[in-house]
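Hi L.,

As promised, Rrn7/TAF1B C-terminal cyclin domain-containing protein:
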Amino acid sequence: MEANLPDELHGWVSKVIEQTRTGEEALLTYDPTARRFKIPSYEVQAAALIIVTMKLLFKLDDKVEWKLSNKADEQNSKNQAVKTFCLQKWYETVHCALDLAREREEQDRARQTWKPKTALYPSKKDKTVVIKRRRVVEQLQMTFQKLSGSTVEPQRSSPSSFRFQWGEEGTDGPSFHNHRLGCVLKKKSSSPQLSNVKYWHTALKVCDSWHDGTHFQEVEPTLPRTYMWLLGLFSFLLGVKAARVHAEVCHVERRLIKGTPFTGHKTVSPRRKKKKNSRCNLKRKKVSLTKTSTV
């Protein structure tokens, strides 16, 4: 919803989930007894599935997506009743809103005075006095700012997962939810097929290193700019780093391309300790050896 993508994309994402089997209960459940356990981030997983689906439909190699956008413009000019999704117009709309949102966030962060939420007091006896003084100081600051006409410090609001609004007047831009994905399909015989046949991906070999295992900083200059912009969009929406989203994309691609069957979480089996022989067993062995030697 917040990425302003077409509603028809949901069906393709569901197919990717079925193919990768990422919707299984065992994969979405946190298991602390697993060998390599980690708390699942469902929002990052959903973003990775959307990005993989976008790569399947538009390839996102800085070439094919713009050709498909020109094809969508031609379809929209011929038939204005049915709106075909144009990636270029979607990119221009979301890119402007994303830049403005980042600027607002930086300005709010610069104007915000960093102070503790709770007052600091040396003893419990002075608690009421310190809190009362702090309230008086804050009220005086607010009144002086209003009288002087300076910008009022933004109040700390509760975190919200929605950053953009699309479709209505006074929002961040037009909505693309009702647009159709006609430009990415071509009809052959009776069933429609994807016009994009090829798919690119980074190295899928798992690297057991201290970082995310994808060498994102080394690979980042070679990645297509459209793909990098899409990573930046979802990382801004989720409040995580782009490397985290890229690592989850590689995980989904590993399951999609290699077809790795999911066998559940591997638990560590405890090592069996060898039973130590008691003294009586050792004596019996010595006795048996002496008997055989005398015979």
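Residues 260-271, 282-295 have pLDDT under 50 and may be disordered.

Thanks again for sending the construct details.

K.
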